[in-house]
Amino acid sequence: MSATTTDTAKDEAEIRALVEAMRRALHERDAEAMVARFAPDVLVYDLAPPLWSRGAEVQRENLRTWLATKTGPIGYELRDLRIEVGGAVAFSTGLARMQATGVDGDTAELWLRATSCYRKRGGRWEIAHHHESVPFHMDGSLRAAVDLQP
Asked: pTM (2 decimals)?
């Protein structure tokens, strides 16, 4: 194995560990742990409005607001996670199943698409961009297609 192959495998393993840490932090409803892995200038395209947010501090408040509407652990299962590494940048794609219970007792479960872009600074991978989305019905209703499953 060449040094480059070894470095790429190491970087991919570090990113997989970062993804798992984020999944665990979401499960535990820990906004601080989630934001700790974001770049200070992270760009986020989330499921909830607004269309986008920029900055770890803004995302911290968005997460706190959203998490306050939930109770108990949040399920987040990743499927088909693919990671591509190229030097000091990388990206991952996959499908995620999220399960959550609101403070009103209503439960929600949906599959979504997740893409993250990473950059390595100071020897540490951080999330520079994160995008989650669901498709919508193009029949004129514009309803989110949250009933799809892989």
From this structure: 0.91
Tokens found for residue 94 = 């996959």
Distance separating alpha carbons of residues 150 and 112, to the nearest angstrom: 10
The closest of 79, 51, 81, 50 to 65, measured between CA atoms, is 50
Q: Which domains does the chain have, with CATH numbers?
A: 3-133 (3.10.450.50)
ω into residue 135 within 30 of 0, thus cis? no
59 sits in which H/E element: helix 56-67
| CA–CA distance, 127 with 38 (Å, rounded to integer) | 5
The pLDDT of residue 49 is 87
pLDDT tens track for 111-150 = 999 999 999 999 999 999 999 999 999 999 999 999 999 9
| CB of 96 closer than 8 Å to CB of 76 | yes
The low-confidence residues of the chain, meaning pLDDT below 50, are none
The answer to whether residues 53 and 38 touch, using CB atoms and an 8 Å cutoff, is no
